[in-house]
Amino acid sequence: MNLTIKLPTSRGTLDPYRLEGTPLAALAPSHGFNRVAYSAAHVVADPLRAREANGTAAIDWQRTIEYRRYLLSQGLGIAEAMDTAQRGMGLSWDNALELVCRTLSETSDIPGALIASGCGTDHLPASAARSCDDVIRAYAMQVEAIQRAGGRIILMASRALAGVARSSSDYAHVYREVLALCDEPVILHWLGDAFDPELAGYWGAVDFERAADVCLDIIESNVAKVDGIKISLLDDAKEIAFRRRLPPGVKMYTGDDFNYPALIAGDEAGYSHALLGIFNAIAPAASQALSALAQNDLQRFDALLAPTVPLSRHIFQTPTQYYKTGVVFLAYLNGFQDHFFMLGGHHGMRTPAYLADVFRLADRAGLLRNPNDAVRRIHNVMIGLGCVV
Description:
The protein is of the alpha/beta class. It has helices spanning 61-73, 93-106, 132-148, 159-164, 168-179, 208-221, 236-243, 260-265, 278-281, 283-294, 298-305, 308-315, 323-333, 352-364, 371-384, and strands spanning 4-8, 14-18, 37-40, 77-80, 115-119, 152-155, 186-191, 226-232, 251-254, 273-276. Helix 3 runs parallel beside helix 5 (168-179), helix 10 (283-294) runs antiparallel to helix 11 and helix 12 packs antiparallel against helix 14 (352-364). The radius of gyration is 20 Å and the shape is globular. The relative contact order is 0.15.
């Protein structure tokens, strides 16, 4: 097949693009990682059984689990039922719990499989929460359900709590009560409002410095219950400043999809582990880079991850909450699903030019595993979108 294709651009033109990348193979790690690395995994929708956007999600369970096994085979952990899986944006709590249970059950044969699951309050609409006690009860229900399934917990930020909390002391109260219910140390999750505008002012403060103080006080007061914290603020300076203040033994999990290579590599003052949505899209590069880092081969680490940064920054561009569209489109291009269809109609949240740039940047990063097939797939999508290719 001709590896030159005409694709739309942000200038409103159709320009020829010739593929130039050398595909990275998906390999089992050659060396154990010296960072904990979770990939937040997407779900594969079932277009034949799809309902309206406000209906129960129709999920292709076979392809969804196959993708998780693909990630695990490369040494990456799974951050299950998180925002990458469209939690709160097409994936309900009932769907999420089934996803958690299926993933734990259907990957139990994989030695050392590292899986942690998102626990929140999304079954309680923010408008229905009247008090912090409502939020505590909502968290408690999900904590119990995930622990009953044998899962580890990622304690997600709560839209309901953001709606009812009147001060930072309300956050301290809720987290103290919820953490007391957790059997094992959890990963806290500070999701910035770029990812979810409804979480603006989380921790009871608008400015970062005050919010960081509140969050750190909560960690220090409950340190035996906290494995680490994921920060998704897309600001490396803020993450580093926060990381340096963490109590001994509490991990920083970067959620910075703009600056992850330097944050993971770290410096003499410390480093971040990873819990990243972009690892879903760049798994071969992430896995091989982490193996290189464990062998102190920083040159190869940088060579593998540097080309992925333009792709990640493009996928996560504003409005950032629609990054899932780019992640799923790349999974489609790489043959992990037979269609480009998403829960809640989110396949329509980005423009054809955006999708074309996902294709170009993935190629340059060596992340189109079968270039001929990827050309065929993007050709079909662009025709369907009315772009003459």
